[in-house]
Amino acid sequence: QVQLVESGGGLVQAGGSLKLSCAASGITFEINDMGWYRQCPGKQRELVASITRGGDTNYKDTVKGRFTISRDNAKNTVYLQMNSLKPEDTAVYYCNVRLGPRNLISYWGQGTQATVSS
Predict the structure, then answer these.
(1) 29 in helix, strand or coil?
(2) SS3 per residue for the chain
(3) Among 15, 34, 39, 110, which residue carries the largest CB count within 10 Å?
(4) Distance in angstroms (rounded) separating the CA atoms of residues 118 and 96
């Protein structure tokens, strides 16, 4: 059974930092892309950052320079270091992993809340 377990969310003041982790288990194939999405109330889920197995990264424009995504392939774990947090970063953050041909297989974590107070 595939499980993605997220941790690291919480409440922080503006300008502070949080580090999210997501550990995937029960996956028998290599994970291609790993990513973090977020969803604010009443809004669509959006991509925050993604990383390929080889380490190529992609970021939402508004988090560039503040967030850093990384992964440990041996542990099937992806991280999101979030610095200089702003109230508009408040959201539920979800990790996502993709595998298989053309990344057609996708799994999601349960979400972790990150709240940034002003």
Answers:
(1) coil
(2) CCEEEEECCEEEECCCCEEEEEEEECCCCCEEEEEEEEECCCCCCEEEEEECCCCCEEECHHHCCCEEEEEEHHHCEEEEEECCCCHHHCEEEEEEEEECHHHCEEEECCCEEEEEEC
(3) 34
(4) 29
pLDDT digits 0-9 by tens, 48-63: 999 999 999 999 999 9
pLDDT single digits (tens) 74-101: 999 999 999 999 999 999 999 999 998 8
Measured CA to CA, the distance from residue 107 to residue 17 in angstroms comes to: 26
Residue reference for tokens 């967030």: 67
Distance CA 38, CA 49 (A): 10
Dihedral sign for Cα atoms in the order 45, 6, 24, 50? positive
